Amino acid sequence: MNIFDSRNNFEWRDYLKIFFRRKWFFLVPFLLVMALGVSSILFKEGTYESYSIIQIHSSRLPSQLSKLLPGVLGVDGYRDWKKQILSSDYLTHTIKTVGLDKNEAVISEALAMQENLPDKTLDEIVNFLLIKKLREKISVKQYQENMVEIRAQANNSEVAHLIVKTLIEYFREDFLEKEVSNIQSALKFSVEQIEEFQQKLKESESRYNSYRRNVLGNQASEELLTPESTQRIRDAIVTSELTMREKRDDLMRLNDLLRSYNLGNSIPVSLSINTQIVGINQKINEEAQLLKRFAPGSAELMRVSRSINMDRENLRSEFEKYYTRQYASADPGILSSMANKALALLDLQISEKRITALNDVLNSSRQQTTLNQSQESALEKLEEEVGLNRDIYNLLLQQAQGTQIEEAMQRANAASRISIIEPPTKPLEPDSSGKNMLALITMVVSMVLGFVAVYVREYFDGTLQTVEETEEFFNLP
Predict the structure, then answer these.
(1) What is the H or E stretch that residue 418 is in?
(2) Could you tell me which of 361, 418, 415, 464 has the C-alpha nearest to residue 180?
(3) What torsion do the CA atoms of 442, 447, 453, 456 make, to the nearest 10 degrees?
(4) pLDDT mean over 428-444
(5) Average pLDDT of 348-356?
(6) Following DSSP, what letter does each residue of 285-340 receive, concatenated?
(7) Which domains does the chain carry?
(8) Can you give the pLDDT at residue 41?
(9) How far is CA 450 from CA 25, 26, 232, 454, 462, in A?
(10) What is the pTM of this model?
(11) What was the pLDDT predicted at 340?
């Protein structure tokens, strides 16, 4: 019977009678659905929810100063914030910080999936699963203008709190880093330049100090001539040249006297004579060096001069002995003239050696003076290079200090722009809103199914329950 047919003229009491008559058709589905709903509510794990609210203000620096600081930009839109917070970078950082990747259930699920994903590592699959779950459990909503609310759900109160706290802290750090990124790039470049020119300064100082030590060492070892010592050496050269002329005249006279003996123009040769001549040459060189510092008549020069004269007299005796052996039958006067000729040749040789030694001293002094001038010029260039590198290094240091001040100002400005209106909450009890909704749905569904069961049973019931049904069934008038 169709209980809603208008021809039945049912009143509400009639509906109640039908309901009580078919009450078991209502109670059975009602109780079954209610039992399922209650069991779901009872065995459903509690979900803890933590939230936090952050606000980003516009720049608080003066407009002119803001123009000088790159990176002081306008506030990003809500969509950009949401995309940023739910990005893989943020969620991966949260997973590592909170330690969600140590969850055994997630690892087991990842191991089961790894068979179908052989090209992925276990850590990558775990990270993928956790990011997917976090995006379902985290919500980012616009609370008010320039305000964002972040909510996170978890089965543990501490985990929910840590997820929100980690996201907030990472968002704040990321915001500050982006605000000062341009300044940091400039500061990094300044530091690199400072290190480069610091190295150049050290290298140039090392070259300068090394070259300066060499120059000072050369100047100390090589004594330069003063105008007085130069004049003394020139006077000694003139004296030696006059002595040479005198000795040449003596030699010509003695050659005429001894022409018949054919002695030649060489000094007699023997080991003793050669040894003494070498000693005289060494003393002549010493005498030339002493003239750079001492005047004629000084004790040092007199000592060397006496030593040369003594060697000269010894050689005279050697010459006399030599010619006495060679010309034993000759007249003693002739033998004396022979010795005088050999001595004149020795004096001529001594004068030539003295002139050569003195000229060597003058030339060496001129060369050393030229070398010193060249070294001084090179030393000045090295000193200029050191000064230039030091000036550039100091300038870069000043610029870096200015950049550091700008960075501190911009960081302070950025820190003042972002504020946490509501710190991350730590839920004490699980959120029951889901259970309440589930209970309401269970109640509604169970009642609807119960009434539907009653209606269907009554609709397909073929028994005659009323006078109207009987009249209609038998077609009575």
Answers:
(1) strand 418-422
(2) 415
(3) -120
(4) 72
(5) 83
(6) HHHHHHTTT--TT-HHHHHHHHHHHHHHHHHHHHHHHHHHHH-TTS-HHHHHHHHH
(7) 47-179 (3.30.1890), 227-402 (no CATH)
(8) 65
(9) 7, 4, 141, 6, 20
(10) 0.45
(11) 81
d(CA 218, CA 367): 12
**Pair 140, 85: CB distance under 8 Å:** yes
Burial of 194 (0-12, 13-18, 19+ CB in 10 A): middle
Type of residue found at 461: D
Question: How far is it, in rounded angstroms, from Cα 445 to Cα 424?
Answer: 38
Q: Residue 73 — very low, low, confident or very high, per pLDDT cuts 50/70/90?
A: very low
Read off the tokens for 78. Answer: 């809500």
Find the Cα–Cα–Cα–Cα dihedral 453, 458, 462, 464, rounded to 10°: 160
**pLDDT tens profile 289-347:** 777 776 677 788 788 888 888 888 888 888 778 778 777 777 777 778 877 888 888 88
Using only C-alpha atoms, the chain has a radius of gyration, in whole angstroms, of 60
Name, in order, each residue with C-beta under 8 angstroms of 62's C-beta and a sequence gap of 6 or more.
none
SS3 (DSSP) at 20: helix
Quote the DSSP letter at residue 237.
Answer: H
Q: CA distances (Å), 166 to each of 163, 237, 317, 457, in order?
A: 5, 97, 112, 59
**Which residue(s) pair with 447 in the sheet?**
none
Least Cα distance to 410 among 60, 7, 32 occurs for 60
Q: What's the residue count for the chain? A: 477
- Edge-to-edge strand ranges of the sheet holding 48-56: 138-142, 147-154, 48-56, 418-422
What SS3 class is residue 45? Answer: coil
Residue 4, H or E segment: none
Tokens 């060597």 map to which residue? 360
Query: How distant is the alpha carbon of residue 476 from its chain centre?
Result: 109
d(CA 113, CA 420): 40
Distance of CA 415 to the CA centre of its chain: 27
Question: Which residue(s) pair with 152 in the sheet?
Answer: 50, 138
- The residue behind tokens 């990094």 is 188
| Rounded-to-integer distance, Cα 401 and Cα 152, Å | 43
Tokens in use for 370?
């030229």
Q: In Å, what is the CA distance from 54 to each residue of 81, 435, 461? A: 11, 29, 65
Per-residue CA distances from 287 to 28, 128, 291, 351, 473 (Å): 141, 97, 6, 12, 165
Neighbours of 323 (CB within 10 A): 22
Number of Cβ within 10 Å of residue 232's Cβ equals 21
Per-residue pLDDT tens over the stretch 244-257: 888 888 778 777 77
Contact 342, 358 (CB under 8 A): no
